[in-house]
Amino acid sequence: MLSGITKLLKSLANFLYINKCIVCNKNAENFLCSECKKQINYLSPYPIKIYKKVPVYCCSIYEASIKKLIKSLKFYRKKHSSTVLSKILFEYFSKLNIGKNFVIIYPPAFFSKNIRRGYCHMELIAKEFQKLTDFEIEKKLIKKIKYTKPQYKVRNRKKNIEGSFAVNKNLIQKYKNSSVLLLDDITTSGATIENITDILLEAGISDITCLVIAKAGN
Ligand SMILES: [Zn+2]
Questions:
Q1: Would you put residue 25 in left (φ > 0), alpha (ψ -120 to 50) or beta?
Q2: Which of 17, 46, 126, 136 is the most exposed place for a label (fewest CB within 10 A)?
C-alpha cells in the first residue's frame, strides 16, 4: 500500500516538474535537457571588466536558456532553477582557476520582496554554489537598507541603487582579510556590483572578486 502511494506521488511529481527541462518542458534529467544546455554561450574565462582593481567575471549572456532559467527562478517560483544555474556558474568558475578560499556574498533583496516571492533567489543560488565549492556564505555582510525599483525598470541605474546597500559594521573586522566572492544574477550597467564593491572597499575589505551569471544589453 505504502509503496503504491510512494509510486503515485513520484509519478505525480514527475508529471509536475521533476525530470522535465525547465526551459522547454521536455523530459530531461536534472532540469535541463542537452538541447537547451547547448544554447548556453559561455564567455571566456577573463574578466569582462576591472572595477577599482576588482575583476568582474561573467559566465554567459542573458539570452535563450539562461534568460529562461533566471526568469523562472525570479518570477515563476521555480526554486529548482537555482540548482541548474549554480551548476552552470560552477562550470564557468572552475575554468578560472582562482584558487582562493572565498566567502560568498550576494546582493540581498529588500525584505518585502522576499516575502512576496517567498524566498531570496540569490540566496538559493549562493547556497547551491556553496554545495559545489565548499566556500562559506555570509548573508549578513551586506544589508539592503532601502527599497529600490528593479534595475531593468529605471534609466539611471547608478542613482537608483545609491544608498540602498550597507556593510554590516559588526562583521567588517571578521572579513577584513577575507577573499570575498560577490555573486549576482544579471549585470547590465554594473551598477549593483559596483555599488557593493564601493561600500566594501570603503569598509576596508579589498580582496573582492565579482562573479555574475549573465550579462544583459542596455
Ligand atoms: Zn530543454
A1: left
A2: 46
Residue 114 C-alpha to ligand 1 middle, in angstroms? 28
**Those residues with Cβ within 8 angstroms of residue 25's Cβ, 6 or more apart along the chain or in another chain:** none
Cell of 73: 527562478
Same domain, 73 and 25: no
Instruction: Judge contact between 125 and 112, C-beta under 8 A.
Output: no
pLDDT in tens, 144-202: 988 777 766 767 777 788 888 999 999 999 999 999 999 999 999 899 999 999 999 99
If you measure from the C-alpha of residue 129 to the centroid of ligand 1, how many angstroms do you get, rounded to a whole number? Answer: 22
Distance 21 CA to ligand 1 centre (A): 5
Please tell me whether residues 76 and 180 are part of one structural domain.
yes
Cα of 61 from ligand 1 centre, angstroms: 17
* Closest by Cα among 115, 164, 175, 173 to 139: 175
Is residue 208 within 8 Å of residue 54, measured between CB atoms?
A: yes
Separation of CA 83 and ligand 1 centre (Å): 15
For residues 75 and 143, membership in a common domain is answered with: yes
Distance 79 CA to ligand 1 centre (A): 17
